[in-house]
Amino acid sequence: MTVDLARQLAVDNIAANCFRIDSPVASEGTLANLPDVDHSDFAPSSEAAEGILWMLDQPTDYSGQLESMTHLAHREGIMPTAASRPLTPIEMFTGVHDDQPNVFVDG
Fold it and tell me: Where exactly are the structural domains of the chain?
């Protein structure tokens, strides 16, 4: 869906990306719904927001990307709690947009 939306919006120079939270985040909803769970090693929600803001700060040709929170943290040196965790599998993303690294078509 992300790649298809990115291709459709490219004509209007609008980027569309997916940010997959694959590291425990102590969001308000998580804390409310799991009060008995130990949240001491969960990242604060501001950390996930840091990754999302990083993506929003990219040029518009950074579009159609499927980013994992832990992979982005390791690669870009941001979100320290997520960066301290092992990388998660990305097989679900393999092949999704390998044929077109840039969704913006010249012309």
Answer: 2-93
* 39 touches 30 (CB < 8 A): yes
State the pLDDT confidence band at 23, using cuts at 50, 70 and 90.
confident
- Per DSSP (E only), the strands in the chain are 18-20, 25-26, 43-44, 66-68
Q: Which of 22, 91, 13 is nearest to 51 (CA)?
A: 22
Structure tokens at 80: 């320290």
Q: How far apart are CA 21 and CA 39, in angstroms?
A: 16
pTM across the whole model: 0.74
Q: How far apart are CA 28 and CA 33, in angstroms?
A: 9
